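Protocol step 4 of 6: structure prediction from sequence.
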Amino acid sequence: TENEKFILGFFLISLKRFKNFTYIPNNLVLKVKERAKLVEIQSVTIDKSLESITRTRFLILGAGSFNTTRILLRSFDLFNHKTTFLTKPHYVIVCLHLRTLIRKSSFKKLGIGQLAISSNKTNQGLSSFFIQLFRFNPSALYKALKYIPLPKPISLILLKIIAPSLVIADVRLPSFESKNKFCRLKRDTNGKDVLEIVFKETEEELRSHKNELSNIKQQLKTLGLFPL
């Protein structure tokens, strides 16, 4: 998204202030290999026209859950090897903040604050849930117009009335290791690497999520948020 690009750009500018920092753009890391006193990083340009090797004394590999797994499996030639893959199940609940609906406020007065809620109950040592609350982005109003089956002028008026009172609850529940949650690196018939991901939750897990969400919705109401 544009917001992510801005954050990454700002982060990159901050790093460039260090005299020993070098940025290598438009490269995809293929594999890493440890040598006696250094680490080699094999990469290829995005258009796959040029491969290169970069050497460093230390390597911190943080390419996201998908790419970090891909790089490590390929680096150790672990093709067709199943390794555990976990990701938190997300449930999005759109809520109406009744107080701001009754007492009108402009977007400017609402501020840019975020609120996070976590549970003190644990499930196998992990918090039962974690919630981030976000306000609806006013600049995204036009994107919602096509989903309202009314003429655009009327839809826009309704959105302007309701949007300042919309709150998005991003609910994250824990995930636990099982044989139905894994990934493996494979080669297709054309010789290209494919990272296969399988993530299947059990009926018991899904029932637990449903019960937890029912409880969360009741708690959101105590904050004046009415789940839609």
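Step 5 (inspection) to follow. The first strand starts at residue 27 and ends at 34.
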